[in-house]
Write a structure and sequence with these properties.
448 residues, mainly alpha, Growth Hormone, Chain: A, 18 helices
Length: 448
């Protein structure tokens, strides 16, 4: 069926329904990002209490690597089934149940009494996050099949993810200030626990609204006509899709490695910087939240930058390469250069690093649903997002934490910063090489 006939066959939704769809998708992306990033923010106090481990020691770095590596890998593997189910059962149904699943798991993670229990619940959270992300992308792509509108909607909805960053900073600041006035959890008033528990709040309106929103009309029409092919992971590696499957998976892994190898370790850098290291522990944790707000500002600028580029720049390959080349300049400067000398410089420098990482996230959010056919849109996108973003990328977290025990440096902070720079430059160079073979997506969505 050609594109004109396809558009004519799609049910017409009112403007209010369309905006509600975009808003709920954006809010869902915010919840996704909150749950992906929150553990990095609370990692130090969490390990200090549950370990207990002292920051900067090999034991602390070892468990930091485990906490940042195991949940994404296990959760990413589990989420592969969710992408398959989104193609089999529908985008809307899987969206609803993924929210319920990781809303419950997010709440339970805040009640954990041991590291093993926390890691278990975090695995379930990450699985739900991955499924929700790819199902929402397929949902939006098929609700807005017109090329120009689809590009704007996908890009703008992903701007909503930055709300998750601000939610984390706000929740942690509130927890630091009011923890003593909140009900005790596991016999104490640890701010990190309340920050994890606050993460369930955005799930509540999504659980209420999403069951009433429309299913993807493209998927529904093909399912009703009996012409919807059965999804298959094997088909992703047949000749027509093999190249885009392998390259997008590896490149998504490189993009998310920037978060696992760099952004998630910034909260550990802050307490050791001049201007913060002299302060009391609570004041240091407040600075962690302040710096995270600057990371959040960079994230929203990066997402908005992509909105502009997605509309006016045709070549996706050149856009990605521009982000990567810029990163080769910015990342080493931030973590090996003058910004490391004082917190007042560092907090502004991380804005630029965050811009380049967030722009790449939006890039892949727009790219993945455009290159796989209708019956494989969830399966293909979840393969790239899960295998690349949740299995390959967490290797960067493991590499960063372990290399920081081996690399030279006057302080643990300096060693960690050197490790971060080395890891992200390595992944960026690899991505730049792989990007030369990345296929350009077609203007029209592939249906078969």
């Amino acid at each position: 069926m050609n594109m004109e006939a396809t558009l004519n066959a799609i049910p017409s939704f009112g403007r209010a329904t369309r905006w509600l769809v975009v808003a709920t998708a954006g809010f869902g992306f915010a919840f996704d990002l909150y749950e992906m990033v929150v553990q990095a923010i609370v990692l130090k106090p969490m390990l200090t209490e549950l370990g207990p481990f002292q920051p900067g020691t090999p034991a602390f770095n070892h468990w930091a690597g485990i906490c940042l590596f195991v949940p994404p890998v296990i959760g990413g593997l589990a989420s592969l089934a969710g992408g398959y189910l989104a193609d089999r059962l529908g985008r809307q149904r899987v969206l609803v149940w993924s929210i319920v699943l990781y809303g419950v798991a997010a709440f339970m993670s805040g009640l954990s009494g041991s590291l093993a229990e926390l890691i278990f619940w975090r695995c379930i959270v990450i699985a739900g996050v991955c499924v929700e992300f790819v199902a929402a992308l397929a949902w939006l792509t098929e609700l807005f099949p017109e090329t120009y509108r689809r590009e704007r909607v996908l890009a703008l909805a992903q701007v909503g993810a930055t709300l998750g960053n601000f939610m984390i900073a706000g929740a942690y600041l509130l927890a630091l200030h009011f923890a003593d006035q909140l009900p005790a959890v596991q016999g104490g008033h640890s701010p990190w626990r309340y920050t994890l528990l606050f993460g369930v709040l955005p799930a509540i309106p999504l659980m209420i609204l999403r069951p009433f929103l429309p299913e993807s009309p493209l998927w529904q029409r093909r399912r009703a006509a009996g012409t919807l092919s059965r999804p298959s992971f094997r088909e992703l590696f047949e000749p027509r899709l093999r190249r885009v499957t392998i390259l997008s998976t590896l490149l998504v892994g490189c993009a998310y490695a920037l978060a696992f190898g760099m952004l998630q370790h910034i909260p550990r850098i802050v307490p050791g910087l001049h201007g913060v290291s002299e302060l009391a522990r609570k004041a240091q944790e407040q600075w962690v939240s302040y710096v995270h707000i600057h990371v959040d500002v960079g994230a929203i600028i990066g997402r908005l930058l992509f909105v502009f580029l997605a509309i006016y720049l045709v070549s996706r390959r050149r856009m990605l390469q521009a982000f990567l080349v810029s990163g080769l300049v910015v990342f080493p400067f931030v973590f090996l250069g003058p910004p490391m000398n004082h917190i007042d410089t560092f907090k502004y420098a991380v804005v630029f690093a965050s811009i380049l990482v967030s722009a790449q996230y939006s890039f892949w959010g727009n790219y993945l649903p455009r290159v796989f056919p209708l019956h494989l849109r969830g399966t293909g996108a979840v393969f790239g997002a899960s295998v690349g973003g949740r299995i390959i990328a967490p290797l960067a977290a493991l590499a960063t934490t372990q290399l920081s025990n081996l690399l030279p440096g006057a302080t643990p902070t300096a060693k960690l910063a050197t490790s971060m720079a080395l890891v992200v430059v390595t992944f960026t160079v690899l991505a730049l090489i792989l990007s030369t073979r990345l296929p350009e997506p077609a203007a029209e969505l592939p249906e078969d």
